[in-house]
Every structure is written in C-alpha cells, then in structure tokens.
Amino acid sequence: xxxxxxxxxxxxxxxxxxxxxxxxxxxxxxxxxxxxxxxxxxxxxxxxxxxxxxxxxxxxxxxxxxxxxxxxxxxxxxxxxxxxxxxxxxxxxxxxxxxxxxxxxxxxxxxxxxxxxxxxxxxxxxxxxxxxxxxxxxxxxxxxxxxxxxxxxxxxxxxxxxxxxxxxxxxxxxxxxxxxxxxxxxxxxxxxxxxxxxxxxxxxxxxxxxxxxxxxxxxxxxxxxxxxxxxxxxxxxxxxxxxxxxxxxxxxxxxxxxxxxxxxxxxxxxxxxxxxxxxxxxxxxxxxxxxxxxxxxxxxxxxxxxxxxxxxxxxxxxxxxxxxxxxxxxxxxxxxxxxxxxxxxxxxxxxxxxxxxxxxxxxxxxxxxxxxxxxxxxxxxxxxxxxxxxxxxxxxxxxxxxxxxxxxxxxxxxxxxxxxxxxxxxxxxxxxxxxxxxxxxxxxxxxxxxxxxxxxxxxxxxxxxxxxxxxxxxxxxxxxxxxxxxxxxxxxxxxxxxxxxxxxxxxxxxxxxxxxxxxxxxxxxxxxxxxxxxxxxxxxxxxxxxxx
Length: 548
Hints:
11 helices; 27% strand; 4 domains
C-alpha cells in the first residue's frame, strides 16, 4: 500500500492590523474615558493664600457658599518663603463659574466685639471657608481675607467714595444714616497719595442708594454735638451706636436743576459736621483787615464775626507784627465776611461798595467776650455813627481795612486806669491828716467837762421855759417874765462856757460857732416874745390883735 503524498504548505500574508491588538486598544480607550470622567467629576482645584491656618484642617474644613457645601480643603502647606499658608481646595463639579478674579475667600470663626457676635455656629461645626463670587476672568489662585467682609457682592446697593482730612471715630463698620434711619455701612479707609487726605469707602443699601445724587452731602455724626442757644445748652446725638463706633449721615437737598444720578465715579467730601456744611454753603467771601490796640488773648482763628448777634463771618488769621522802623507791635486780624448772609449779591451794587458805604455811616468792629468762663473773644460789627474813623493801613496784606473801636472790657479797663491815676494825684496824706485832726477835735469836744455842764444848763433852761408857759397860762405874767429873764441869763452863761471850752484852732470850731449863733438867735426870739407879752399880756389868750 503506498503512502499518501503530503503536499507543500501554502503561506499567505495578510494586510492591516491584527485582531489581537483590538483588546489592548479597547482597554486603553476605556481607561482614558474613566480617567476623564474621574477628573471631570472631581471639579476644579484652586489655591487660596492665608496668613495663618487657624481652624483649617485638610480633609475636614469645608468650603461654603450661602451655607451650602461647594468644596473641601485637600491640602495645607507653607508657601515657598514660609510667609503665608497655601490652602489647596477641591470644588465640586460645576463650580467653575464661581472662581473668577474678584471672588473673595475668608475663614468663618467665632468673633466677639462691641458690634456683636458672629460665627457662633462654628462652635459646634468647626471653622469653614466662606466664598463670595465676584465678576472677572477665570482664576485659580486667590488671596484670602483676614476678616469677614461687611457686605457681599450680591447685596443690592451702591458703593461711594468719600474724602476727608480727619476720620475722627469713623472706622470699618461705622453706620451710615439717612434722617436717622440706618442706610449703610463704612467698608474701609485708606490714606490718599498726597498723605494728607483719607479715602473712605461707604456702601449705601437699597432703597437708600436711589436717593444718591451728585449734590448729596455727607457729614460725620461721631460723638455728641454740644452747643449753646437762646434756650440753653443743646446736645445733638444721632444714636448710641454712632456715639460708640462713629457714624456718617447724608442727605440730598432738592435742586431746581437736574443733577446726575451716576455717583459711581464721583468723589464726595465728608464734612466734620452739619454746621460746617451750612458755613460752606456761602460761596462769596470777602477778607478784611482789622487792627486792635488791646490784648488779643482769647481770640483765635475760627472765632465768629457777628453783626448784632447774627453770624456773618469768621476770624481767618491772628498775627503779631513788629514794625522795624518804629519798633512798635501791631496786631493785625484778618476776618472773612460772607456778604450773602446780609444781602442779595445777585442784584444791586457790589458788596465791597455797600460795605464801604456802611463804613462811612459808622460801621465799626470791636472785640467782645463770648464766654466769661472760657474767656473766648469774638469780633462784633455794629453801627457807631459818632465815632472817629481810624485807619492804620499797611500790614503787608492786600486787604481792605475796617475801622475799629475799643471793646466794652477795654473801655472799662481804661476808665479804671484813669480813676486810679486820678486817685494817685489826690493828696491823700493831707486829707488823712485833716480827718485825723477833725476826729481829735470832735473827741475833745464830746469829752470836755464844760460840754457836760452846758447840756445840764440847757436841760434846766428847757424846764424853765416849760414853767414859763405854764405860768403864762395861769396869767401870772410878772413871775413869768422874771423866770424868763433867769432862763436867758442861764443860757448866756452856758454859751460862754461852751465857747471857752472850745479851742479856736480845732477843726469843728466853725461848726460849733454856727450852732451857737443859731442858739443866740433862738434866745433873741425868746426875749422878743417875753417883751411882747409884757406889752400885750392878753395876746396869750386872744392872739395878736386880740382887742378887735
């Protein structure tokens, strides 16, 4: 039996990939898809830079937006220079729109202050990172805030910028009021580039932001505004919160002309008080120069200038100048008068011409005491038509001069000095010597024994005269006449004794001589009465002409 014949194998070559490679290709595609899905499902990763990592823990600290978890902290590490802490945050998928250039991050912790408490919920849940989305281009690196912001980006309202030279008690968080209603808050402040002014960022909430116009006025209401009016002390206090934390108030006065409502790019002035706004509402101001002779202690820049009790300006500058030629000191005072307080400057003659006419009619300035307790002075303007017009000129300042008159205190002081000068000119030593001599003479007269005897004799004479009248009534005229002659004799002897007792050189000698002369006239009158009664005794009963 023959063996079968084996043929030669036929080898064929195939073009294209082998089916064997299909399995690794499919595996690679599935793996890539899984990686992509895994990365897509994890959400974006950002880094936030903080100064400290207090309360932040990797894997536990959550990131929240409107109290909803949107991410978690994955890693906490130092920056390359070890100056800050870099926090790596993994956000949930779909949060890319929250991560833009003006987005803000801050750590919410329990905080206690005079303004109140915040973040108390973190006492149980622990600290977390709050996010406040903002506009701008996409960004993956941010610098976190150290403190919680006062407002969020989604809160309705407007932000305005104020400029001032002094903050007072105003700080971030200070309230802003509109007619006593809380309307906003101060966001912060920073020093301007000129190193003199201060910029204040203020946020006005809705609907008060609709009241803002280009002519809106802002002023500080920090502390208490104390003043004195006709009814006594006046105290203005916006609120207790403004007293403690400082505050700002604003208003928008009505205007006839249309005022822009776009205030985003405007810069408003923050005035120190509402009184300052009223003073600056008068645009026209005129400067004048005054010269006073007396002391200017108590007169300072800012002191009021009043006309019959109404404020019309303020003192701008008080100087002391020495004239090198005469070596005399001058006291020039520059005052600023606001003519709009006294007249309508929009019509009629110029204010300078009107004031010049008033000076010709007697307008003068003088110093007055504003307070006896503090000794503060102010300048008073009034009409003194009968006073002399005195102008010094000069002073090195190109201002018109207003004449002055001495003030009330200066006049009183001059009168006292004049009186003292007159008293110094009086010979007080001679007056004292004469007065002493008068007192010594009076003492000698009153204590003289002869005066005592004289008084006894006068008393006896009076009793004798009373007896005469009684005897006259009894119609015993002859005895009456005899007694009267005796009385006159006693009176004459008494006068002689008194005259002998007095020293002719005594100061009261003249007065006593006059008294004795009057007593002599009295004696002569009594003698005439007695002689008349001798001739006509019935006159005692019937009077003169009794026969008729």
